[in-house]
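Table S2 (text version). Query chain:
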Amino acid sequence: MNVVVVESPAKAKTINKYLGSGYKVLASFGHVRDLPAKDGSVRPDEDFDMSWEVDGASAKRMKDIADAVKSSDGLILATDPDREGEAISWHVLDLLKKKKVIGDKPVKRVVFNAITKSAVLDAMKSPRDIDIDLVDAYLARRALDYLVGFNLSPVLWRKLPGARSAGRVQSVALRLVCDRESEIERFVSEEYWNISALLKTPRGDEFEARLVSASGKRLQPRAIGNGEEAGRLKTLLEGASYRVESVEAKPTKRNPGPPFTTSTLQQAASSKLGFSASRTMQVAQKLYEGIDIGGETVGLITYMRTDGVQMAPEAIDAARRAIAGQFGDRYLPEKARFYSTKAKNAQEAHEAIRPTDFDRTPDQVRRYLDADQLRLYDLIWKRGIASQMASAEIERTTVEIDADNAGNKAGLRATGSVIRFDGFIAAYTDQKEDGEQSDDGDEDGRLPEINAREDLAKQKINASQHFTEPPPRYSEASLIKKMEELGIGRPSTYAATLATLRDREYVVIDKRKLIPQSKGRLVTAFLESFFTRYVEYDFTASLEEKLDQISAGELKWKDVLRDFWRDFFAQIEDTKELRVTNVLDALNEELAPLVFPKRDDGGDPRTCQVCGTGQLSLKLGKYGAFVGCSNYPECNYTRQLSSDTNGDAEAAASSEPQSLGKDPHTGEEITLRSGRFGPYVQRGDGKEAKRASLPKGWTPASIDHEKAMALLSLPRDIGAHPETGKMISSGIGRYGPFVLHDGSYANLESVEDVFSIGLNRAVSVIADKQSKGPGGRGGKTAAALKELGDHPDGGAITVRDGKYGPYVNWGKINATLPKGQDAQSVTLEEALQLIAGKAAKAPAGKAKAKAKTATAKSAKSDETKTAKPKAKPKAAAKTKKA
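Corresponding structure-token output:
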């Protein structure tokens, strides 16, 4: 018997059926170990030696795998076909070697791109060794993220109170959002006019033509800059006669786009289906791992973490057969289409995302899928099959028209197009191609019959005023597209990066647009001022290129780390000399439009409006940044930063109910309301109406129909536990998001996890909670609800739930939270104050005296800023990062 290790239990069951009784398939449940979030996990002074930690749940699973391997004939590592999958196989093998259960047993690595019987059996025929270059690239990426996150974040805590974390990719993504906001703030709108004529042919058909030239000069876009000029040209056209100069019909072709990559799938699902990036990946994961179809679990799509755009030869052949059978031979091009990606740093080692069987149409699997699964599969199937179909043939017609008013001439143009042969568009029926814009002008519509040299009758002249608009804020889809173009991060990490920005409250999503909050603007301005290199787009992309070179065996991973750490460590050290006044001066200049908006009276935005003599400036307090007067304490004027006001939506939510649409199942109206305990959503009316409060971090401005439906559907059934058969559900409770199984709760990291967590991860979270026991790992303390970071004197500070309610813990000191305070809302600064207060009341003791002294330093007014904070660039403070 051979032991096969895969990542998820869902795959384990399916693959075991495919392989038969000669194999035992076990799941690792993803990563089996990770770097612990504490000082010394990555040690640059020891040539970047790394310490790994196996949590309780993973230890139990590894014991099961080790026991099975002891009595086996060999080990087959079949984790996912990407860098993370390779790393998981390496971790599993390393742990088994340390347990001394491998011996001389053969160990092989197999990869399959789809969970189908043929794909799995074919993969088993082609085993290989673990790709050490891929593992090295994983180690380098993991070390880099650790070194940046756990060394830069403490700098933020000391120099920028209220900031929570920084990360190698997270901070650059945030900079993109903030830079766009700065562009919008600096934008100056300009007036322009468009002029068109409604004309009629001799046969009585009307069409519209736009003005393109006047007085022998071609008019550039937005060339008509004011109403006076527009009026003059309109008068010219009002009295003109019109004659067709030429009619040109030009055939063009429109080609299909390539099959989906991770990035383009997330973009298309966002624009077409309204899915977030994390929701897209959750649904795609289920389609990949398998759906029960007629009693057999079948993977419907290939692996969904890829930036390759090419399909395997056998898949191309299958697609061409399906096209001929379902659409006809005319829709089949003479030769197969081949694609190459334009994305920076793309690795095309894996296939694009495609259906595992093109004969399995969306209609055929409709009854086996839920609504979201069907919509995403439909998107993938259509894009995949369209990519191998014939080009659409379009005839584009351009009509040039002369206008003559007593010798004053002008030129007008009308354009239109008609599809002569739909080609690949037939796959989309009434849809445009997902994720693409047409360059062929078929959006112009069809023109009536128009002949050269014939006269036209004027019906109406239209002159419309317009104003240039600022660049739009990023949506999740457009930010992902930009990150991919710049080569920032990897497609598999985009969903997690965006979730981190939301969880840190650096951005909010309003009407699907990413809006940076003041906290995010401050972090970005600080990093751009004092860590410029590490948030530069080119630097981040070049680092990704080096990681790819490690994957290809062209660079040594520790050489890359040495080069990075040398300069990064020096920059961290330099912050020891950085005074808060330096920080404030830089932020005042960088964020002037945000911090000092223009005054209605035209006065100096930085002059205090209360005392009239003081200068306004950013101030850093223990609860974050605010604006204050330089004449403090004589003038106590302060105000919050302005970017976090959600104005209209908040006001709307606080007055009358705001309709969000109807529940498609019950037909009841869903509304956004504001009540005694804050904003909430409601379905229906009366006492029996279902209600759900908005969770922390969700603003009324960000609530749409999809989010409201998600809230009202809680608790959400995730699936039956594979061992007990009892249902696992997720929800939001008094202490935040959770999963529930058999009466036992386990906390989740974010609200979004409630809606996106799958069965595999839910089982893992529950197992991890159970491994700690009812009173924590040692049965003495409660499990942490939230980790706040390290105490200035060392040691983690956490929020826990006890017999008498939630409390903060540092070492042997427990300080109860004030009555009514939410455990999830506690900040590090608040925790330090509570610990200091508790220590002050207790008898003198070494630990308590230490806590009191350290906290007194931390709680000292940030506005005096005379002390030089102690920097610990090598310390790995306990914080979360992207």
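Notes on Table S2: Confidence is low (pLDDT under 50) at residues 430-443, 643-655, 774-781, 844-882. Residues 598-639 form one domain.
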